[in-house]
Structures are given as C-alpha cells and as structure tokens.
Amino acid sequence: MAISNYIFLASALFTIGVIGVLTRRNAIIIFMCVELMLNAANLLLVAFSQMHNAHLGKYFPTLASDAQVFVFFIMVVAAAEVSVGLAIIVMLYRNTHSVDVNFLNRLKN
Amino acid sequence: MNITQILFWLLSVLTLGGALLVVICKNPVHSILSLIVTFFAISGHYILLNAQFLAIVNIIVYAGAIMVLFLFVVMLMNLNAASEPQRNKYLLYGGTIAGGSLLIVLVAALKQSGDAMNPVQLKTGSIGLVGHLGKALFTDYVGPFEISSVLFLSAMVGAVIISKKEHQA
After folding, report:
1. A35 chain-B contacts, CB cut-off 8 A
2. Does ipTM top 0.85?
3. Ramachandran quadrant class, B50 (left: phi over 0; alpha: psi -120 to 50; beta: rest)
4. Do B57 and B39 meet the contact criterion of CB atoms below 8 Å apart?
C-alpha cells in the first residue's frame, strides 16, 4: 500500500472527529470524538514509521521504533485524560442532571 | 488486487463507517458500540502495518478499558436517545461545512507532497514486536516512561477527588 492511502484515511478519520466535536452537544460524545482524532494521529504515526523503516531502515534502525514508542505514550496520556474527564462529566451530571455542554456557560459567572 | 489491499479497504470501510456512526447515532450506547468497531478496525490496520504490539495494546487499552469506562458512565447516568440534548440546525450545518473544508484543505496540501507514493509495507518487520519496543522503551525512553507512571497516579487521585461527594456543611 502507498503511504497516501493511509494519509487520506487518517485525514478522513480526523475530520469526522472534528465534525463530531463541532456538532454534538453531548459531553460524552465529544470525548469520544477526541479519541477518534487521537487515533487518527496514532494511525498516521505508525504508517510513517513503517515507511521510514522500509526506506531508511538500514541507515537509521531506531528511527521507526521511536514513532511506535510515541504512539504508546499517546495511548497512556489518552487513558489518563479519559479517567479525569469522565470524572468531571459525572460531576457535571450530578450538579445539573444533564450532559449538555451548553450548561457549561454558567462557568462564566 | 492482492490480499493486503482487500484487507486494507475492508478495514478502512469499517473504520470510517464506525466513526460516522459515532457522530450520527442519537443513542450514546450505540455510539460507544460503533466506536469499539472502529478501534478493532484500527487494530487490524496496525497488524497490517507490522505493529503487533500496538495492535494488542490498542485492543486492551482502548477497546477494553476505555470503552468499558465510557459504557459504565453512560449506564450510570441512564442516558438514551430521549435525553439527548437538542441540536441547533445551523450549528449542524456550520460544523459539517467547517469539517468538510478542513478535509479538503488537508487532502489538497498532502497531495502536493513528493513521496506520496512510497510503499509502507515491509516483507520482514520486527520493529513492532514487543521485544524491540521494550528495549527502546527501557533504554532511550525510560525517563518519560517513569514520568507517565506519575501522570497515571495523579490522574487516579484527581479522578477520585473530583468525583468524591463533598461533605454537607
């Protein structure tokens, strides 16, 4: 497969995540769309690491595994973010009995 | 069209279809289930790309732990399609147009890149195996690895403190 196929796939996945964040008002769905965007970035990192390994593997043997370690750290940070974010959403639901992000307007006052 | 290309297109359709259903579905439980489909398809892509360790970690962490957490929260709040917040129609059109413009800009910019036709497949790929990645993780990246454990600990403590009921005054 050419690298452009993976680039277009990851772009489409990222765009779907952006559209979800912009159009949905449910806080949980917005969180899931952020996960979609993170996964698009992960997929692109892995595809580029394989491309570099196929072309430059004998000159820079550690170049390709660096990207996969970065993907691992992205997953770690995403897991920590989800645990804290869902706690905040549970707190929002407990105070307003809704997961509508428009209610967060009241943070202004 | 060989077997790799057939698998790539099949997994791409699954990935994008699941992602679209996440955005379209009114019921949050259906959105979560289609997001699990998307994560499994992305794991299939990782296996196609010879990144076996990341495929397994993706299934365990995302499709296992994180999606169970989402499902647990949705079940706890008893959300369904009836409790879905009302959507503004203009916001819907505006968001879709903005996202479509972003896709057009990304594709147009990336079509110009010189090495767009470089192949990504490799006959013998061992960099995605757990031995190789573990060696990189515990030699070059041991500092970030330890810091991520501190991040996990602080996230855990923070989640407990945020979701704790405050005392009645």
Report:
1. 35, 62, 66
2. yes
3. left
4. no
Q: Do A13 and B158 touch (CB under 8 A)?
A: no
**Does the beta-carbon distance from A73 to B106 stay under 8 Å?**
no
pLDDT tens by residue, A64-100: 778 889 999 999 999 999 999 999 888 888 888 888 8
CA distances from A43 to A5, A36, A91, B11, B113 (A): 12, 11, 33, 13, 19
What residues of A are in contact with residue B110 (Cβ under 8 Å)? Answer: 4, 7-8, 11
Residues B32, B74 contacting (CB under 8 angstroms): yes
Structure tokens at B145: 């690895």
Q: Please tell me the pTM assigned to this model.
A: 0.89
> φ and ψ at A26, to 5 degrees?
-80, 125
The Cα A24–Cα A99 span in angstroms is 11
Q: Which residue has the tokens 């196609």?
A: B48
Contact A79, B61 (CB under 8 A): yes
Residues 55-94 of A with CB under 8 A from B: 55, 57, 62, 64-66, 68-69, 71-73, 75-84, 86-91, 93
